[in-house]
Design a protein that fits this description.
This protein is an alpha+beta fold and 436 residues long. It is built from six helices and 20 strands. α4 packs antiparallel against α5.
Length: 436
């Protein structure tokens, strides 16, 4: 059953606009405030915290017409086989605590992106306030808390693997929202509980699957509700999210609409249908449900997470995704294995109409490629080894064996003309992770 919050659409839009504007203002105030810290006379070293993380990683796969992607927010090059781009990153974070219960935090991160500017590199920038013990309020740009690893998906040192499984985390957009959140945590016996609510919007930038065009997406009216339970060696988590995605108009959308209005017969009818599919996607709702269970007793590590994604018409991957991971510590070494999968509930769109006489067959192919190009259906078997070289420094090696269903290549950079056939990919990765 799909849940929907009983708030009028116009009120949602008003709340989003006000919340987003306030959040952006706080981002800039936060940065300005942090820049002025050296001029202040009332702070101590303990008030200021500087930290960071870095990964130098290299990955290599064996398909000339597929390019590996860690996530959909990276630049896409189907011919890229061996590269440091997918996993390498550098993050710098500065926090300033003031007036006992307030703090300002800013995080900048360099990683592979479709384009580079300050706004894209600004991962977090928020003002936090703790009115009393257990309650934390934040306003600004914060990590969107959709899934278990949302806060640390790019801080690779804290994760067991080279990267989170792409079947679950590779297609997630966005990574942060401009808005506000509230979290309340408390202890009860041997358990520790945390409840969290978020609201905001985001404007991630992504590329077509072949890297030919940049698309500016929007996720408005983003609502996230999360409950987390820690008890002894166990951690359990449930979350529900919903948003209204949209994207900058595609270059061929108006032409499709014109063909539908001017060309009679099956070609015009299909052009109208395709144009409507894209226009209806703007303003459609998308819903995410998530559950995870983790175990860590100091020797054994196990983790599993499942998510279900559905939509009222947005052009996004939908279906069920999940993974199961097991590892065992032997001193500084931790071998691990993982199985991850994405089950799509979408059918590939297949045209039976001949457009060759119309002169617009290439346009039809581009439209269908855009619809089918978001679909994910694959599974991955993973073996890896983590070596903790020193405190805050780890070296990881990993082998991923992935099978991709025919035509469902959205988790990879690929060309629209790629043959519709099932594909097996072997990916080898080495990464050095550091926190400081």
């Amino acid at each position: 059953m799909i849940l929907s919050l009983p708030i009028k659409p116009y009120l949602f839009r008003l709340m989003t606009s006000v919340c987003s504007d306030c959040a952006r203002f706080v981002c800039f105030v936060n940065i300005f405030f942090l820049c002025l810290m050296p001029l202040a006379n009332a702070h101590t070293k303990s008030d200021i915290q500087f930290s960071g993380f870095a990964t130098l990683g290299i990955s290599s796969e064996n398909k000339d017409d597929l390019g590996f992607l860690r996530d959909g927010g990276q630049s896409k090059d189907p011919s890229r086989n061996t590269s440091i781009a997918p996993d390498s990153s550098l993050g710098l974070q500065l926090s300033y605590s003031f007036l006992d219960d307030w703090r300002a935090t800013t995080q900048l991160m360099y990683r592979d992106r479709p384009r580079y500017n300050f706004d894209e590199s600004l991962e977090f920038a928020f003002i936090g306030y703790r009115p009393f013990s257990g309650l934390d309020l934040r306003l600004g740009r914060v990590a969107v808390d959709m899934f278990q690893l949302s806060d640390f998906r790019r801080v690779d040192y804290v994760n067991l693997w080279v990267r989170p499984p792409t079947e679950v985390y590779g297609w997630i957009l966005p990574s942060s929202i401009n808005g506000a959140d509230a979290a309340y945590s408390f202890s009860y016996g041997r358990s520790f509980w945390r409840f969290k609510l978020q609201y905001g919007d985001s404007k991630p930038v992504l590329e077509f699957s072949d890297g030919s065009e940049i698309v500016e997406a929007e996720f408005n009216e983003f609502v996230v509700a999360t409950v987390t339970l820690d008890m002894d060696a166990w951690r359990m988590r449930l979350s529900y999210s919903q948003a209204t995605p949209s994207a900058s108009p595609l270059s061929f959308l108006s032409i499709l609409a014109d063909i539908g209005n001017l060309v009679p017969g099956p070609v015009g009818e299909e052009a109208t249908f395709l144009a409507k599919t894209f226009s209806d996607a703007s303003g459609a709702k998308v819903y995410y449900s998530q559950a995870s269970l983790g175990y860590d007793d100091g020797d054994w590590l196990a983790n599993t997470e499942f998510t279900y994604i559905t939509t009222t018409g947005a052009i996004i991957p939908t279906g069920t995704a999940g993974y199961l991971s097991v590892g065992r510590r032997f001193g500084a070494f931790t071998p691990y294995a993982m199985y991850s999968r994405f089950f799509s509930d979408q059918d590939l769109y297949k045209s039976t109409t001949d457009w060759s006489q119309s002169g617009f067959e290439a346009l039809k192919d581009a439209a269908i490629a855009s619809i089918n190009g978001i679909q994910v259906e694959q599974y991955t078997q993973t073996l890896g080894l983590r070596w903790d070289l020193a405190p805050k420094l780890a070296l990881k090696t990993q082998w991923d064996h992935t099978y991709i269903e025919a035509g469902r290549y959205s988790a990879w950079a690929h060309t629209n003309g790629r043959a519709l056939k099932g594909t097996t990919v072997n990916l080898f990765s080495v990464a050095l992770n550091l926190v400081f």
